[in-house]
Amino acid sequence: YQTISANHGFALNVPVPGGTHRVCVYGVAMNGTDRTALGCRVQTVSVQPGGHLDRVAKASANKVRVAGWEFDPDADGGPGIVHLYVDATGYVITAASPRPDVQRAYKLLNDKVGFDVSPSVARGKHRVCAYAMNKAHTPGTNHLMGCATLAI
User: Fold this and answer.
1) CB neighbours (10 Å) of residue 143?
2) Which residues 6+ apart lie within 8 Å of 51 measured at CB?
3) Mind listing the pLDDT tens digit for each residue in 16-39?
4) pTM to 2 decimals?
């Protein structure tokens, strides 16, 4: 018994980790035993970290408060790494504070993606920038979350 129709297309989204993958498609007979290779392709998936710089504000006479969130799909959506720069001084921060709002919005495995730090600074004008760092260390895949200038 054979059925013929105009509807022979297909589309499928398959979650995969970042990296290079070989994807093959087969036509399978209705009896489920015979199959024919329709083709294979190599596909590279780039998985970039995401995040947002929510707040840059004066915390006290000699501190700046920097808060936001960051997650890296390469780290299973969990605590990621933020590189924070206040002028020429760099800080490495683990984004591991609870942010259930981000977890819900991005359907992450956990909510430990927030950061809220207050590094010391001298009086004056300062430039603050934060980057979401890619755990896989793929060149060019770190994400600038934002920059702000403020005076203390």
Assistant:
1) 17
2) 68, 69, 70, 71, 80, 82, 95, 113, 130, 132, 143, 145
3) 766 788 988 888 887 878 888 888
4) 0.69
